[in-house]
Amino acid sequence: MVIQHRRHGSDCSPRDTMCLYWKIATICAENEHSSLRNIKASVPQGSILGPLLYLFYVSDFPPLDLISGCFIGCYADDTAVAVRSIRAEHAVLKLQKFMPSIESWCTKWRIAINASKSQLLLIRRRYARKGFYGELKLFNEKIPLVTKAKYLGIVLNTSFKWNDHIAKIKQKTIGVINSLTPLLGKYSRLDLYKKRHIYTAIIRPIMTYASPAWAA
Length: 216
Hints:
The longest helix is centred in the middle third of the chain and has 22 residues, at 88-109. This protein is flat. Helix content is 40%, strand content 17%. A two-stranded antiparallel sheet has the order 1-4. Strands 2-3 form a two-stranded antiparallel sheet. A two-stranded antiparallel ribbon has the order 5-6. By secondary structure, it is an alpha+beta fold.
């Protein structure tokens, strides 16, 4: 982290001050503190400066500018690498050529990626969904091929339709409504204003999350 901080030209004094910030960490729960632990890599989670320091930490993630038809989407610690090609095998081959860059970067900055938790999703036209003989590996571990994947809370499937995402939203919304039945049901003593406030604050955000993307 100190190396990344230097790369961005930060002054020495703030850098030296924040060195203590990311060297040790402790957890507090109900006024009880755990023992101090050394932070060997990355940045502490749940901290005030954590998001800013994380941006410093991943600012030099390998680019895909030299590869046509490729795109990298990064948000916090979620990263999606997308490529476009006529054939699925060729698209996966382009992805595989990029994997050594990710492996070198992770090794350099001591970032661990669990390949088994990564997913390979092929979005194809209906007539082209039969048969696929390629594979994608990260750190010599095969990345599983899936029919749907969740990225930033949105469920994407092989046909790029939103039925799986809407089904997930419906299931989650029903569960929340059932849990709030004592407050929202006809036997609740809350007035309509308070019920509307609960709906606006808790239920509606679940139903409309990322709706500009999937409801357009």
